[in-house]
Amino acid sequence: MKGFTLIEILIYSVLTAFILSMVLVPVYQIMQSSSNLDVKNATEAEANFLLRKMEWALSNVSTINFPAAGSSSSTLSVSRINFSQNPIVFSLGNNNLTIKQGSGAAATLNSQSISVSSASFSHLAAAGNTPEAVKINLTVNSKTYQTTIYLRK
């Protein structure tokens, strides 16, 4: 009689399962790594957007209404030169960064998949040759981003 014995079938089954597991582990790790990279890229893009929006608001600034020079706050209020929707107010609430222009309603700047857990705006007074500036610290999805924007008047 020709054919396979039960022992041979078991051995081949175990070898096949072992080979498949050796192949599937790296495939799973690659898929997990790709997913983590997607989240990281989305966070970076969102944080960059938020910082650029604040940079826009701080271009052509006539006055920083809040916080006062030398202090910090989770709210930033500025007035721009020749801008009909003054003041521009950035604030943090419910893990969202919002912008309010003039008397309009506040709009959320970040997407639902992104959490802004902290925002700090420090008003740095002009000193010597260093112009007035705003230092911004944001924590987006547990990663901190910061920049200092110098005002040119």
Query: Which shape, going by the Cα principal axes?
Result: rod-shaped
Distance between the termini: 97 Å
Q: Tell me which oligomeric state these chains represent.
A: single chain
Q: What count of helical segments does DSSP give?
A: 1
Secondary-structure element series: HEEEEEEEEE
Give the structure's gist in a few sentences.
This protein has 153 residues and is of the alpha+beta class. 34% of the residues lie in helices and 35% in strands. The strands form two sheets. A five-stranded antiparallel sheet has the order 1-3-4-5-6, with helices on one face. A four-stranded antiparallel sheet has the order 2-7-8-9, covered by helices on one side.
List keywords for this structure.
single chain, 153 residues, alpha+beta, four-stranded antiparallel beta sheet, 1 helix, 9 strands, 35% strand, rod-shaped
Care to describe what's here?
There is one protein chain. The protein is α+β, with helices and mostly antiparallel strands and 153 residues long. The chain has one domain. The protein has one helix at residues 6-57; strands at 61-66, 72-73, 75-80, 88-93, 96-101, 107-108, 116-124, 133-140, 143-150. Strands 1-3-4-5-6 form a five-stranded antiparallel β-sheet, covered by helices on one side. Strands 2-7-8-9 form a four-stranded antiparallel β-sheet, with helices on one face. A hairpin with a 2-residue loop joins strand 8 and strand 9 (143-150). It is rod-shaped and about 95 Å long. It starts with 5 loop residues before the first helix and ends with a strand. 15% of the residues are buried. The model has no long low-confidence stretch (mean pLDDT 90).
